[in-house]
Design a protein that fits this description.
This protein is of the alpha+beta class. It is 36% helix and 23% strand. 32% of the residues are buried.
Length: 475
């Protein structure tokens, strides 16, 4: 058994990097546990392990008595004198109580306890080695799949890439080498738990810090990151040196720097924009490449209303609402993108509203209601205010005109006309719907570096969404 102990010590010291003194303490504690079973419940039991020879000795402190009644706690005077010549009744003496061959059961118990303690020492070392790596990027090999999670061998420890932290459109294979962001490190009862992520916004932030020297040395600062993993990321940057262009520094010469990051993210689009303390300027940057005509800012509710021309609508909203949603998360403000309506379109909307009201109140078909509305008769009250000849003049027969006027006379005002706006999002800011029609509303998350939810509040025209893979000027 002693040889086994030494072999185990050598293995864990050389292969696992655990300090030998820690191992020796683990061995002594394990043997002490085994000794208590073999020797019995003696007082102040002490075990000594010689790491060179592997010899094990157990010592117990016993009370010197004339007549021994408790062999586990007392020793006769004539035996005590053999160990301590000056011993007398009532003294405590330490006596070696090592059992012969230590006992087969005690030896097995000691070995199991020792290995358990050594494994704990190994787990403690792993935690100590990785506890300061949270927020770093680590590289490892995928060694197995566990119910959708990936187990990654980091070389000195295993980490978990949970399914929720994976990028939906990425595929992973056994023995594949991957890089991932360390989300958290916890020391649990089962050992250190290292959680990795490839979808976290911090992964993009850290890639920029590693790739762009100006970010690493503090000349350029990343102020916010908004990400929809696998599809698009917006990064807001600012320069602390007026001679350094923050966007150009991140893009790099001929786009080399940002292309390396895009390659790591398997083609995910990246928009790099200039951060600005002026929210009007910041939102303008964040919504690029779209241009807008008007911006209304609600400071109290941190809400912004953007009005764009029809040609800019799909650019401002983005594919499945992505551009507006990410801009909202990047700035921390709710952004409502609305389409500008021409006077002709506004008039047509009013006519349609009038037609709906006439159909509802007079119970007539839409063709007749349209004839009345385009003639300026938009309510039953208006119908009662015209002459019979006026109705005949717009194409009604005398009989139908008289019948229509008689029906209108039986109705009592007021006549309510419901808003028939078919937009999918709520118009919470009470904007004048005669001037604009709301198309999109994006809510910011609590923090800009939080992955956006998959549901879009509005959809843009995919055919018109021609954003480049990487935005920003070349250095």
């Amino acid at each position: 058994m002693n040889g086994d102990f030494l072999a185990v010590l050598d293995y864990y010291e050389k292969e696992k990097g655990i300090d030998r003194q820690v191992l020796i303490e683990a061995v002594e504690n394990a043997i002490l546990t085994a000794s208590k079973k073999s020797v019995g419940p003696a007082r102040d039991l002490r075990v000594v392990f010689d790491p060179k020879s592997g010899n094990i000795k157990a010592f117990a402190t016993l009370r010197v008595v004339e007549n021994v009644r408790n062999q586990h706690g007392e020793i006769a005077l004539n035996k005590a004198i053999q160990t301590a010549p000056d011993a007398k009744i009532g003294d405590d003496v330490e006596v070696e109580v090592t059992p012969t061959n230590f006992g087969r059961i005690a030896a097995q118990t000691a070995k199991q306890a020792m290995l358990q303690r050594i494994r704990q020492a190994e787990r403690d070392k792993i935690f100590e080695d990785y506890q300061d790596r949270e927020g770093d990027i680590l590289t490892g090999n995928i060694v197995r799949f566990d119910r959708g999670d990936l187990i990654v061998d980091l070389g000195g420890a295993e980490a978990v890439l949970p399914e929720r932290e994976r990028v939906a459109n990425e595929e992973y294979n056994l023995r594949e080498r991957i890089r991932a962001y360390v989300v958290s490190i916890r020391n649990t009862t089962h050992g250190p738990e290292i959680i990795l992520s490839r979808s976290h916004p911090g992964f993009v932030r850290r890639l920029f810090e590693l790739e762009v020297s100006e970010i690493y040395d503090g000349t350029v600062e990343i102020k916010a990151v908004a990400r929809e993993a696998g599809f698009r990321t917006k990064v807001a940057v600012v320069s602390h040196d007026e001679k350094v262009d923050p966007v150009g520094a991140c893009v790099g010469m001929r786009g080399v720097r940002v292309k390396n990051i895009v390659r790591e993210l398997n083609g995910e689009k990246i928009d790099i924009v200039r951060w600005n303390s002026d929210i009007r300027m910041f939102v303008t940057e964040a919504l690029q490449p779209a241009r807008f005509k008007e911006m209304e800012i609600d400071e109290r509710h941190k809400r912004i209303r953007i009005i764009v021309e029809e040609s800019q609508l799909s650019l401002a909203i983005g594919r499945r609402g992505q551009n507006a949603r990410l801009a909202s998360k990047l700035t921390g403000w709710r952004i409502d993108v609305e389409r500008e309506i021409s006077p002709e379109m506004a008039l047509e909307m009013k006519i349609e509203e009038a037609i709906d009201g006439l159909v509802r109140h007079l119970e007539i078909d839409r063709t007749l209601a349209g004839t009345l509305a385009r003639a300026g008769i938009v309510t039953p009250d208006g119908l009662m205010a015209v002459e019979l000849d006026d109705l005949i003049g717009i194409g009604l027969t005398p009989e139908s005109a008289q019948e229509l006027m008689a029906k209108a006379a039986t109705l009592e005002p007021p006549f309510d006309f419901e808003d028939t706006d078919d937009t999918e999002t709520e118009h919470e800011d009470g904007a004048d719907t005669d001037a604009v029609q709301q198309e999109s509303a994006a809510d910011p998350s609590d923090h800009a570096e939080t992955e956006a939810p998959p549901n879009a509040s509005a959809e843009g025209d995919d055919d018109q969404d021609r954003d480049p893979e990487v935005s920003g000027p070349e250095n």
